[in-house]
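Narrative of activities, Objective 1.

The group set out to show that a structural description can be obtained from nothing but a protein's sequence at a throughput compatible with the screening campaign. Below is one input-output pair from the validation batch, recorded exactly as produced.
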Amino acid sequence: MRAAVFYATREGQAARVAEHIASDLRARHIDTDVVDVRHVHGEFDWRDYDAAFVVASVHLEHHEKEMIAFVKTSKRELDRLHAPFLSLTLSQAGAEDTNNHTTAQREAAHADALRMIEGFTKDSGWRPQHALAVAGALAYSKYNFIVKWIMKLIAHKAGFDGPTTRDYEFTNWPAVDRFVAETAPPI
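Output recorded for this entry:
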């Protein structure tokens, strides 16, 4: 059995999640390729694949345009392989923060994360059978001045006020592992 984990990323967190998924699949004895969709030009050769995962991060309320373009041209194959979708968004970090957010704030943050997934399905025309909102990261060290300022405002609105002198990872790795366990193809 062979799987592909497709990802699109700006600062690298979606690539880290894609590699993590690939590691989980390899532990299940599934030969797995990790594919950055920025490097897929034209039609992808699906002949060798029995499974696929799709990982994309949200920036300014939209997923990467190259992932949307890839999924638009690959919907039929993604449906055939029952490919799960993981959407990385800081909204999910707020949804999981039980220390600094009320139940109402966490529910609103989760609803926002689900809205991002719904936006992806509208933009791409693909509705995955399984989707998971995953908390991403704040990679302040990789942002230019303007993006850093915007991300600081977004983080502040979400209730996170850590200094911009370092990066923060919010990804819930056990949740990713559970999702892979629930959606991975049987061997």
